[in-house]
Amino acid sequence: MDAPDSERQPTAAAMGHVLVVDDDGHIREVVRFALEHVGYRVTESNDGRSAWTLFEQQGNEFDLVVLDIVMPGLDGLDVCRRIRQTSKIPLIFLSSRDEELDRILGLELGADDYITKPFSPRELVARVKATLRRFAEVRAILAAGEARAGGLAGSQHSRDPQNQETLLRHGPLELNPVRHECRVSGQAVVLTVSEFGLLRALLERPGSVLSRKQLVDHAYGVEHYLSDRTVDSHVRRIRQKLKAAGHECVETVYGVGYRLVDEG
After folding, report:
1. What are phi and psi of 92, to 5 degrees?
2. Torsion angles phi and psi, residue 209, rounded to 5
3. Does the pLDDT at position 156 exceed 60?
């Protein structure tokens, strides 16, 4: 696995702080070199228990976690479960397991991406960047929504008429990009950042068939990357959550991609 040969990017403080957890010292060395080469700060942990202790003590200092699954003692899945009980920090699994069920389980536990070994350091860096960009965009949207809500609270208006223009609707399904909220018939549906972005892309183009790449491009921009299998896993979770809320509207067009089914 060759490290990226691009020129060094902005400083580590500007790029972010990544916690890398893997019991293989060589893997940690490769990941550290790849991330530090483009400007990230890296902290290493060699097993799940020490990683969880580190996260409990310093979790607010990290911007993203790269987490191996197969480790002695406390494995990566258990670490992910514990992290997700208290934090929405971006998390990428880096694992030798390439079975579909393992990928699905990892994403269902709240991981944002899943990379299998052996891996390309360039791809790892690209996915770290893409994941952090997605979270930065969501934070910016939420901050803007909170600022707007604060301004309205101080005014004589109880609601902003223009806010209705931000809502995306499909039958009983309603998406509010400003507040990052999803509801079906008024019932809240909890979506991850990746799930929300993909569903928003479909809602903005009702009836249109979008390939997996088009979905990612529309959701996050052409510079972002999610593997086809990761997109499929996210869409599967979106369907499950919407179905549980009583609204099945995402259709697979085999060999092409996905679309939002027209009603009526």
Report:
1. -120, 125
2. -90, 125
3. no
Residue 248 confidence (pLDDT): 87
* 148 lies in some domain: no
The verdict on residue 231 lying in a domain is yes
List pLDDT tens digits, range 21-50: 999 999 999 999 999 999 999 999 999 999
Tokens of 43: 């902290």
Q: What is the CATH number of the domain that holds 115?
A: 3.40.50.2300
Domain range for 36 is: 12-133
Number of Cβ within a 10 Å radius of residue 76: 26
Q: Is the pTM of this model over 0.85?
A: no
Between 114 and 219, the more confident residue is 114
How far apart, in Å, are the Cα atoms of 33 and each of 66, 120, 121? 14, 12, 9
- State whether 76 and 18 are in the same domain: yes
Helices 48-58 and 76-86: crossing angle, nearest 10°?
A: 20
What is the total count of domains within the chain?
2
Structure tokens at 240: 């499950």
